[in-house]
Design brief:
mainly alpha; 2 domains; Four Helix Bundle (Hemerythrin (Met), subunit A); Arc Repressor Mutant, subunit A; 3% strand; 68% helix; 271 residues
């Protein structure tokens, strides 16, 4: 069934909210142009405009001198942030549920069936991942996982995986438009070690270890994505709490008073 324009706009809104929650669209940043958003997400001008208007209406963006500016989490309704986080959580979890089903099995098959050429291709992808260039890293990451699936020698599995690439990985244009500011980036190559462990297990033809290393890798990526989005939501909840603590201390400056804290979240760690 063909998606309605409204449905596409809603989906685009959720994608853009996810970039705000992840820090790729930092508070105070100017929203990418309509042309860039159309290129990255493969949608039309009307869809982009409807999505942007929805983000303005919900408080995620504000118009300043003809530009759309990303709002700070403390300036967005906590309820809106919570709804965005829940939608993003569900989307991330669904994608990784499918990736785990396909890729853990593929890693075991690759360990059993890989050829010398297959292993050389996986190693070549791994080599390109040891870089500080974010776009190069993610392109090589996509190629690495595709090479592992092809090494399974299961044609049907490979075709299913190829069909889902648009959901599993971002287009190259995404990393150009939504690249992080230098001070926000973790070392891009920090995911190299996890991929190396997958490569080594496949090279040794250790089926169980290859499956386990792939499971660990995908689980780590999923948890890292969710953690950084939750950190952004926590900012909106923590700020009012701090204000209340200050007021309470002024009224009752007892040294025995216990401060109110928000639950701690894991810090982002790029797999």
């Amino acid at each position: 069934m063909k998606l309605s324009r409204e449905t596409l706009a809603d989906r685009l809104q959720e994608q853009l909210k996810r970039q705000m929650l992840s820090g790729r669209l930092a508070p105070g940043a100017v929203m990418p142009s309509e042309r860039e958003l159309r290129e990255v997400f493969g949608v039309g001008r009307t869809t982009v405009r409807e999505a942007l208007q929805g983000l303005v209406s919900s408080g995620f963006l504000t118009r300043e001198s003809g530009r759309l500016i990303v709002q700070h989490p403390t300036d967005i309704s906590p309820r809106m942030l919570d709804l965005a986080a829940r939608a993003s959580d569900a989307s991330v979890q669904q994608v990784f549920d499918v990736r785990k089903l396909l890729e853990i099995h593929a890693a075991g098959l690759a360990a059993a069936n890989r050829t010398t050429d297959d292993l050389a291709e996986i190693a070549a992808c791994l080599g390109r991942m040891d870089t500080q260039d974010e776009a190069q890293y993610h392109t090589a990451d996509r190629s690495f996982h595709c090479a592992v699936v092809r090494a399974s020698q299961n044609i049907i599995l490979a075709e299913l995986y190829e069909a889902g690439l648009g959901l599993f990985f971002r287009k190259p244009a995404f990393w150009r438009v939504f690249t992080r500011a230098p001070e926000q980036r973790h070392r891009v190559g920090s995911g190299y070690e996890g991929h190396l462990q997958i490569h080594d297990a496949i090279a040794r033809q250790d089926i169980d270890l290859a499956r386990e290393q792939m499971r660990r890798h995908l689980q780590q990526v999923e948890q890292s994505l969710l953690a950084v989005m939750h950190e952004t939501v926590d900012v909106a909840y923590e700020t009012p709490a701090v204000m209340h603590e200050t007021l309470d201390a002024a009224e009752d400056p007892s040294p025995e008073q216990s401060p109110t804290t928000s639950p701690a979240e894991e810090t982002e760690r790029k797999p």
